[in-house]
Amino acid sequence: MIQFIDLKAQRERLEADILRRIQGVLDHCQFIMGPEVAELEQRLAEYCGADHVITCASGTDALLLVLMAHGVGPGDAVLTTPFTFIATAEVISLLGATPVYVDVDPATYTLDPDALRRTLESFHQDARWKDLTPRGVIPVDLYGLPADYRRLNKIAAEHGLFMLEDGAQSFGGSVDGHMVGDITHAATTSFFPAKPLGCYGDGGAVMTNDGEFADVIRSLRVHGKGSHKYDNMRIGLNARLDTMQAAVLLGKMVVFAEEIELRNRIAARYDALLDGLDGVIRPHVPEGHRSAWAQYTIRLGERDRVQTALKAAGVPSVVYYPTPMHLQTAFADLGYRKGDLPESESAAAEVLSLPMYPYLPESDQEAVVRALRDVL
Ligand SMILES: *Cc1c(COP(=O)(O)O)cnc(C)c1O
Questions:
Q1: pLDDT for 229
Q2: CA-CA distance, 325 to 319, in Å (whole number)?
Q3: Is residue 111 predicted with pLDDT exceeding 90?
Q4: Contacts of 72 (CB under 8 A, 6+ apart)
Q5: Ligand 1: which of 56, 58, 60, 138 to mutate, most ligand atoms within 8 Å of CB?
Q6: Pocket lined around ligand 1, Cβ cut-off 6 Å
Q7: Which of 36, 60, 82, 259 could be 324's S-S partner, Cβ–Cβ 3.0 to 4.6 Å?
């Protein structure tokens, strides 16, 4: 039986060490903000090169904390991609601000810098947005590939907008040698179990090189606290990472760099196996970019027929994501229609993610591609 993601393979490898670390937490009983949390933040910062890593309760809370720190609220617009998981856009609406969707580059599925520039240049000509103030941009590193930050950072700076990199899928990736966490003003990630760095529950982090901003995030994470627990300077959240999850992640960090290497090797192997297979578009990684390969995602016509036939052949695959945000019921009041963001819509109809995890056996990979060949 081929697994889409087999979390057991990793657990067996790391079990003894992780159990020892969890036992350590049970022994000292500091379940909230215990020493493992600070130790993990230090380890993550060393790994990704960010000056500050602030862990939190989920990837969604990480996004929310950054938007709160920027004071995003009603009357504000935040530009983002519709081709993502709901969390990216949900946090904008949750704060009373308005998501404005910008189409993706069809080769990388990440926010298209040209489309961003066009949207910003004609922003107030659109009746829907004439009373809104553009405040920031949230590109998403879909499938683990960092977006085109060389250009996106520049456009955001020219328009006085903040940048927030949704790196929920890309922790471990890089652009020009800068790791996710050290590419834009602030990045967030998720430790949901199926992400490249997953814990045994929910978890997330904010990464930034801006010290003052990091202090605000630390305060917001604990009810907007000031110098002590019962000094409340601002309205915040309870968004801390559990000590237990920090212990799990410390165990996983021991092998994480190696796992990113393994994911890159598996992606290269898929590339080679799929080479010359008519009708299949392989993932594109631009020069200087390194993906964390949360997913290996191909693109093909008749996607649904292929997926059904693969399933019958015992090969699991997943569609991330079948409906772009601008066509979701939850965002119906934004006034978008089918056809408004054509690249995102056709990507949503044609993408298919194949089994991917660091310990995916070569024989499974060969079987996946053999089945795909047969189906096509
Ligand atoms: C998983 C994910 C999130 C949310 O992370 P959680 O930890 O599940 O809250 C946000 N954005 C993207 C792109 C994701 O894939």
A1: 81
A2: 15
A3: yes
A4: 78, 92, 95, 97, 135, 136
A5: 60
A6: 58-60, 84-85, 87-88, 140, 166, 168-169, 190, 192, 202, 204
A7: 82
